[in-house]
């Protein structure tokens, strides 16, 4: 009977299950029987004895049946086990028999019920009725390329006819074969839509009609795309494969490149990872990249790489030309694997603010020998000024020099470029112009070469060789007509000859016949020519001549009349814009095309946030289709959009704005729940928990439905009819010991989603363990880069005792090595985890513990990445400025329409609590404390539902609460906050200003000043005012005297707020204020006349000159300025110029002698002002330090110089004075000035001399110059060869000095020139000196003079030498000289003697010639001169020669040298040496030529400057 009732599909299934079970069970029992051995010998003996005792004595066992003891034991054991196995089989068969009977009875009941319903329907069908939908159409959301079937059930009598409509248009299956399929079976009507695409999104309706009426059912079908293919389908951009490439590789795409955003000039990489099976390094899969459906090829700007499981496309130096939908297509074993995503490229920052973006898609068309037509696409203008035109630039290939082609901006996106060089290659670029400036240039076009290929082909013809003068061109017409220009085109002559050809163009007003040549300066080679200078409203005709070296052709037939047209050629505005939800960061737009396309290039889409006035571009390159996905939007924000159409003339008017739309995901059914877990079992029921779907479908999940089945019945049965709102369910009416499987479905507004994967088998067996069950519902909050909060729910099964705590384990994703995070169990159901690695992914589990031990671990959590959401904000604690309420606030970085802010305290939901109030405004939620106190302290957290984990927490501490309570009290009991309390300041006229400043004042503020308990009002002597803008209230006292001592108070009332501020001005504080006020009064009086705006101060120049300076004011031309020192006036060579506003007194070569009190006096008829400056004490030290700073910085390295007295080290600098803090050191020991070590200096240098040096003086020497802050050090190493050379030079100079000291010389007495009358006596007498006594020789005209009666030569006492000439005659005129010398040297002195006759005029005395002289003048230095002889006054003894010190320049420091001259003054003790003295008897040398002497600078140290 069962075989007849059970359907074939059930019969086969059940019998198979039961047969398999019986077979395996029996096999297992037999195997146990055959393999089992006896357990022990003693047990076998006992069983044998029992068998013998129970046997009947009358029965004798036959011999063939007799068994040994072992055989008997084995037989008994097997028989026992077989009996048990048979009992189990019988029990199972009995259970199956009962179950089969129940199923048969159920089927019989169903059959009877169906038969009764059929009879009832037959009765109802006889009653006439209008159509009625028993099952209406249901909305569907499907993926692209998948079918969707709309079903409905209609009843009516007679049976209705059903027609299908799409957006009110009848659905015709024959119109698009294979697209639609309409069926009607048993009253169920269906419409099947095959391979849905985006345009199938519409409202579908089924209309049922019979003779009694009409019924309609409607439903919406929304076609969406998967993440990897949705956009290409929505936008209609499908890659066009030119060829299918077979592949034997299996490829699965893993990480796919997302929608990307770039900026002009930058670079970007699109990367897709994949798994390739088999992975052969040398045989990678074939991959192709597409942009907007067009195949890309590698170039300088496009790099493609494939290998290592990665496909990469790198775009360098981005331009808006690169914007578009990029598709990666990989050929696989099963066909292709593909992924698409959009790349947006925004404008780079303009060089001029407000300038437009760069044009794009620059291309060259109609290429000829010297003519190219350049076209481009206009940029989008959102907030910029409209574009007024474009500049076109060209550049020869291989060059970086760009040349502008048009002088005035062209207004259309085309421009004819002529005048190119034949055979040259060019690039072109375009720049847009608006009122703010010029845009950045576009990307340059591809290279084009100015050649006419058709012309080259024609020249190969044989007939061309016989042609000389070409024929006329034909078909002259306008190929481009715009407001700015007209492009003429014609056909070249045929035949034309092989000689180079050019064209001449003429124009005339239509109908006049007055032809005029228009390309006089251009030799035109191309059959194209742009004409720019045509007048508006006039019609023109054109004709063309062909010209070559042989002559000109006839004129062509004139063109038709041509007239420039207006540029009103933009498309009309697009139609209605409809925005629909797409994803959490994008919106899908559709719009109606313009009614007048006018060669449409595409569309620009703009958007703005609702409430904002600023529009932003959604795309940066014209998009060709009338649907677009706008990416990069803020989740939860509301936007409106508009569209503009684009063509060669520019942008159309904007379309109407779309309706506001919030950025939310498209409404779909939720995904499947997962991770079904058993929480508890009592033997008759199982408590389940599961995790919510990963995708809620854009709507809140409203219910869960649980299904089950057991091992006997594989059909899923509903557990709950009503939806569950919690993710925990207890399933009852279960059979203990049976195994069950469960699945869960989630439902939202769109419908019921897919069921979850079946759970693992769960045995209905009561839990009796003492430890607790698993925790469940693990979730995460406040995920940051290095920390997170994990939360869970307590176990449903607690075990033998209450749960006392929890342990949390953590492991990295993919690892099973869990680490326990807390050493001690936590009692609450959350834990803060810190120390995470940023970007790493972790999994967690939780174990509960009670008094009996640690329970089962929970299921693993979902992997969580330690990384905060972009734009994550933290909770802010504050006080409301108006109400004074204390609050916590969070602004969510992401939100959707269904999102809710769930606040918790210590991670327990707050719920309805009178102490707290939650409010939400936009993206911000605020938790307000109604009456905050210590009970409100704790950790507060908030979670934003239906987001990717937006959450934050804040710990409210007692200190923070007290601070906010103080602020709250201040707000609720307001005071006028003050920036500055009551203060005073002394003004320039001695007035005293009392003031305070409030943070904010209203125009209705009132206030008053109280002084010593008496209110002061504005009047004589007091001025009271306030400024609302700055918040300042002030009172000015004109005459501040001793009577004003006391307490000052300012009281303020501003609305409800009050405050006051006081100032106590008594005692020393008042005396200081009064003194300052009196001083300012005096200053004011002083400044009425000439006065010092800056009193005397000192400065030091780079040359170390000290300047006393001051600044003066209120002066006039008559104002006098005088300098004084110690009351003694200082008169300068140049009087001070007071009109310049500054005066200065230079003090050169500053030293201690310049100390004193200096005074400057400024006076005129209006008054006098005085400034004094005391240079002494600290001021003197400051000046010396300032000089030392400059001098030390300019100090040269130490220079070695030898002298007859010793070795000298010198340091040159801008200025030196002995008052400077200068220290000389030898081997780091300070040197004191002594006879051995002498220290001194001049204005240009400091020196230290080692007298009579010895080996002890070898070593390292240094000089330190200190300016009080910094020390300047210069060093010299006097040792080794440097010392040896210096010592030898010292000995040489010492010997030379001795010789110079003792050589023979003329001390004085001789004149230079003598004039004498004849017959007079001449006596030349001088004093000589030398050691030993020198020899004296006289010469006349270089001949030695001997003693005669006329000429007498004497040398008395080795000291006085004389030459006496008695009765001189003209023959005695001449050049006389005396040579004084000893063994150390000598000296020549020359005298010129001139003799004149009596009565003659005294001649002009000239050196070396005889002159007449007045006899009365006899020099006193010539005691033996005869009266009447008057020589020219003799030379006085030469004073010590002082050679100027050649100070080295600042930029050049003399190098240390033993032979370098010492730039010191020549000492007085040694005269300057001259040239060598000639040997005796030689011709008389020039006057004052001395004997050989040692070089300069052998003198003693230079004495200090006087």
Topology:
Layout: H1 2-5, H2 8-35, H3 41-54, H4 69-125, E1 129-135, E2 140-143, E3 148-157, E4 161-166, E5 169-170, E6 180-185, E7 188-193, E8 202-210, E9 213-224, H5 230-235, E10 250-253, E11 260-263, E12 268-277, E13 287-291, E14 294-295, E15 302-307, E16 310-315, E17 324-332, E18 335-346, E19 360-365, E20 371-377, E21 387-396, E22 403-404, E23 414-418, E24 425-434, E25 437-438, E26 448-449, H6 453-459, E27 474-481, E28 486-491, E29 502-509, E30 516-517, E31 528-531, E32 540-548, E33 551-552, E34 577-583, E35 586-591, E36 602-609, E37 616-617, E38 627-630, E39 638-647, E40 650-651, E41 661-662, E42 674-681, E43 686-691, E44 703-710, E45 717-718, E46 728-731, E47 739-748, E48 751-752, E49 762-763, E50 776-781, E51 787-793, E52 803-812, E53 819-820, E54 830-834, E55 841-850, E56 853-857, E57 864-865, E58 876-879, E59 886-891, E60 901-905, E61 908-909, E62 916-921, E63 924-929, E64 938-944, E65 951-956, H7 958-972, E66 978-986, E67 992-998, E68 1006-1011, E69 1014-1016, E70 1022-1027, E71 1032-1037, E72 1046-1054, E73 1057-1065, ...
Parallel strand pairs: 2-9, 11-18, 90-97
Antiparallel strand pairs: 1-3, 3-7, 4-5, 4-8, 6-7, 8-9, 10-12, 12-16, 13-14, 13-17, 15-16, 17-18, 19-20, 20-23, 21-22, 21-24, 24-25, 24-26, 27-28, 28-31, 29-30, 29-32, 32-33, 34-35, 35-38, 36-37, 36-39, 39-40, 39-41, 42-43, 43-46, 44-45, 44-47, 47-48, 47-49, 50-51, 51-54, 52-53, 52-55, 55-56, ...
């Amino acid at each position: 009977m069962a075989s007849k009732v059970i359907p074939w599909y059930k019969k086969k299934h059940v019998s198979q299950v039961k047969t398999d079970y019986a077979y395996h069970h029996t096999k297992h029992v037999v195997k146990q029987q055959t393999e089992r051995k006896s357990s022990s010998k003693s047990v076998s003996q006992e069983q044998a004895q029992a068998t013998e005792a129970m046997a009947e004595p009358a029965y004798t066992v036959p011999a063939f049946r007799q068994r040994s003891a072992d055989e008997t034991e084995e037989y008994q054991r097997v028989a026992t086990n077989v009996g048990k196995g048979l009992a189990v089989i019988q029990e199972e068969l009995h259970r199956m028999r009962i179950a089969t009977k129940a199923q048969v009875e159920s089927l019989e009941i169903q059959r009877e019920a169906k038969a009764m319903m059929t009879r009832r329907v037959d009765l109802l069908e006889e009653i006439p009725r209008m159509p009625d939908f028993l099952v209406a159409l249901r909305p569907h959301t499907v993926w692209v390329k998948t079918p969707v079937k709309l079903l409905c059930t209609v009843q009516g009598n007679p049976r209705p006819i059903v027609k299908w409509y799409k957006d009110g248009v009848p659905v015709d299956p024959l119109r698009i074969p294979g697209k639609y399929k309409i069926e009607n079976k048993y009253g169920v009507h269906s419409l099947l839509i095959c391979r849905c695409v985006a345009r199938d999104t519409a409202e579908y309706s089924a209309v049922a009609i019979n003779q009694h009426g009409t019924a309609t059912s409607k439903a919406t079908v929304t076609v969406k795309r998967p993440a990897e293919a949705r956009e290409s389908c929505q936008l209609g951009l499908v890659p066009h494969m030119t060829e299918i490439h077979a592949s034997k590789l299996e490829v699965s795409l893993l990480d796919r490149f997302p929608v990307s955003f770039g900026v002009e000039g930058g670079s970007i990489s699109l990367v897709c990872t994949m798994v390739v099976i088999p992975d052969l390094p040398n045989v990678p899969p074939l991959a192709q990249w597409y942009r907007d459906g067009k195949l890309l090829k590698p170039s300088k700007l496009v790099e493609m790489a494939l290998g290592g499981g990665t496909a990469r496309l790198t775009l360098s130096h981005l331009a808006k030309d690169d914007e578009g939908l990029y598709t990666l297509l990989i050929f696989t074993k099963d066909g292709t694997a593909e992924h698409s995503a959009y790349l947006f490229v925004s404008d780079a920052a303009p060089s001029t603010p407000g300038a437009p973006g760069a044009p794009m898609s620059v291309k060259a068309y109609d290429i000829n020998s010297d003519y190219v037509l350049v076209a481009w696409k206009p940029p989008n203008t959102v907030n910029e000024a409209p574009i007024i035109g474009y500049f076109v630039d060209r550049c020869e290939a291989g060059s970086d020099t760009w040349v502008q082609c048009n002088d005035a901006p062209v207004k259309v996106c085309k421009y004819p470029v002529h005048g190119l060089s034949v055979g040259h290659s060019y690039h072109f670029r375009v720049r847009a112009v608006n009122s703010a400036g010029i845009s950045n240039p576009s990307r340059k076009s591809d290279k084009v070469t100015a050649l006419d290929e058709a012309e080259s082909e024609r020249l190969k013809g044989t007939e061309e060789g016989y042609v000389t003068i070409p024929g006329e061109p034909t078909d002259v017409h306008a190929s481009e007509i715009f407001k700015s220009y007209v492009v003429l085109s014609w056909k070249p002559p045929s035949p034309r000859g092989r000689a180079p050809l050019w064209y001449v163009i003429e124009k005339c007003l239509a109908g006049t016949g007055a032809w005029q040549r228009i390309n006089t300066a251009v030799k035109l080679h191309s059959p194209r020519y742009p004409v720019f200078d045509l007048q508006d409203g006039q019609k023109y005709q054109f004709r063309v001549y062909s010209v070559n070296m042989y002559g000109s052709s006839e004129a062509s037939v004139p063109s038709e009349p041509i007239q420039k047209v207006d540029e009103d050629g933009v498309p009309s505005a697009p139609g209605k814009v409809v925005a629909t939800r797409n994803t959490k960061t994008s919106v899908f737009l559709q719009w109606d095309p313009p009614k007048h396309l006018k060669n449409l290039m595409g569309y620009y889409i703009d958007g703005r946030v609702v409430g904002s006035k600023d529009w932003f571009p959604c795309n940066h390159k014209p998009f060709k289709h009338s649907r677009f996905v706008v990416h990069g939007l803020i989740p939860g924000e509301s936007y409106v959009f508009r569209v503009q159409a684009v063509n060669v003339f520019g942008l159309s008017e904007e379309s109407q704005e779309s309706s506001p739309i919030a950025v939310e995901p498209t409404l779909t059914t939720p995904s499947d729940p997962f991770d079904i877990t058993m929480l508890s079992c009592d033997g008759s029921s199982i408590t389940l928990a599961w995790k919510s779907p990963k995708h809620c479908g854009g709507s809140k999940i409203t219910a869960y439905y649980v299904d089950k089945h057991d091992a006997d019945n594989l059909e899923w049965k509903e557990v709950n009819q009503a939806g569950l709102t919690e993710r925990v369910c207890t399933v009852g009416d279960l059979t203990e010991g049976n195994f069950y499987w469960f699945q869960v479905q989630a439902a939202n507004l769109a419908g019921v989603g897919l069921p979850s994967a079946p759970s693992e088998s769960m045995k209905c067996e009561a839990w009796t363990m003492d430890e607790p069950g698993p925790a469940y519902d693990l979730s995460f909050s406040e995920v940051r880069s290095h920390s997170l909060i994990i939360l869970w729910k307590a176990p449903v099964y607690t075990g033998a005792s209450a749960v006392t705590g929890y342990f949390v384990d953590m492991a990295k994703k993919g690892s099973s090595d869990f680490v326990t995070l807390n050493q001690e169990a936590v009692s609450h159901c959350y834990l803060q985890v810190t120390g995470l690695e940023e970007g790493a992914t972790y999994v967690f589990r939780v174990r509960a513990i009670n008094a009996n031990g640690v329970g089962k671990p929970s299921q693993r959590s979902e992997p969580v990445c330690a990384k905060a959401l972009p734009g994550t904000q933290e909770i802010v604690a504050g006080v409301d400025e108006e109400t004074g309420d204390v609050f916590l606030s969070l602004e969510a970085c992401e939100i959707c329409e269904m999102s809710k802010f769930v606040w918790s305290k210590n991670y327990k939901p707050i719920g309805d609590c009178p102490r707290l109030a939650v409010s939400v405004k936009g993206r911000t939620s605020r938790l307000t404390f109604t009456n905050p106190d210590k009970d409100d302290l704790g950790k507060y957290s908030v979670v934003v539902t239906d987001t990717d984990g937006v959450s934050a927490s804040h710990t409210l501490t007692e200190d923070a609460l007290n601070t906010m309570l103080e602020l709250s009290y201040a707000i609720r009991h307001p005071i006028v906050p003050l920036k500055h309390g009551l203060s005073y300041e002394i003004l320039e006229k001695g007035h005293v200003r009392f003031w305070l400043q409030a943070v904010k004042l209203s125009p209705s503020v009132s206030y008053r000043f109280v002084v010593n308990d008496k209110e002061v009002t504005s009047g004589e002597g007091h001025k009271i005012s306030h400024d609302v803008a700055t918040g300042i209230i002030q009172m000015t006292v004109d005459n501040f005297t001793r009577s004003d001592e006391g307490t000052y108070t300012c009281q303020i009332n501003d609305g409800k707020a009050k405050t006051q501020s006081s100032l106590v001005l008594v005692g020393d504080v008042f005396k200081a204020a009064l003194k300052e006020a009196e001083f300012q009064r005096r200053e004011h009086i002083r400044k009425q006349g000439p006065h010092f705006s800056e009193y005397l101060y000192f400065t030091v120049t780079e040359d170390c000159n000290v300047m006393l300076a001051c600044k003066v004011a209120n002066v006039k031309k008559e104002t006098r300025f005088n300098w004084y020192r110690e009351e003694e006036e200082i008169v300068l060579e140049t009087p001070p110029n007071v009109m310049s506003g500054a005066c200065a007194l230079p003090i050169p070569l500053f030293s201690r002698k310049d100390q004193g009190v200096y005074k400057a006096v400024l006076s005129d008829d209006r008054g006098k002002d005085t400034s004094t400056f005391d240079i002494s004490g600290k001021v003197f030290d400051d000046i010396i330090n300032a000089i030392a700073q400059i001098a030390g910085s300019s100090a040269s390295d130490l220079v070695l110089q030898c002298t007859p007295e010793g070795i000298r080290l010198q340091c040159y600098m801008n200025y030196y004075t002995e008052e400077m803090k200068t220290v000389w050191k030898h081997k780091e020991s300070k040197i004191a000035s002594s006879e051995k070590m002498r220290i001194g200096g001049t204005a240009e240098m400091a020196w230290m001399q080692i007298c009579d040096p010895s080996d002890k003086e070898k070593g390292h020497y240094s000089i330190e110059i200190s300016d009080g802050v910094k020390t300047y050090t210069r060093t010299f190493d006097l040792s080794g060869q440097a010392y040896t050379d210096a010592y030898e030079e010292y000995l040489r100079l010492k010997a030379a000095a001795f010789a110079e000291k003792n050589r023979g010389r003329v001390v004085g007495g001789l004149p230079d020139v003598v004039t004498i009358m004849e017959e007079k006596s001449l006596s030349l007498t001088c004093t000589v000196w030398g050691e030993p006594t020198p020899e004296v020789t006289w010469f006349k005209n270089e001949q030695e003079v001997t003693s005669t009666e006329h000429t007498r030569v004497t040398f008395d006492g080795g000291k006085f030498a004389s030459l006496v000439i008695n009765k001189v005659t003209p023959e005695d005129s001449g050049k006389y000289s005396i040579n004084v010398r000893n063994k150390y040297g000598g000296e020549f002195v020359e005298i010129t003697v001139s003799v004149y006759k009596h009565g003659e005029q005294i001649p002009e005395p000239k050196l070396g010639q005889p002159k007449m002289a007045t006899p009365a003048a006899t020099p006193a230095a010539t005691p033996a001169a005869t009266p009447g002889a008057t020589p020219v006054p003799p030379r006085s003894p030469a004073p010590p020669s002082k050679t100027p010190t050649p100070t080295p320049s600042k930029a050049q420091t003399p190098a240390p040298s033993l032979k370098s001259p010492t730039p010191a003054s020549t000492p007085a003790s040694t005269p300057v040496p001259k040239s060598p003295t000639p040997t005796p008897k030689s011709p008389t040398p020039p006057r004052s030529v001395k004997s050989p002497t040692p070089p300069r600078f052998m003198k003693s140290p230079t004495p200090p400057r006087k």
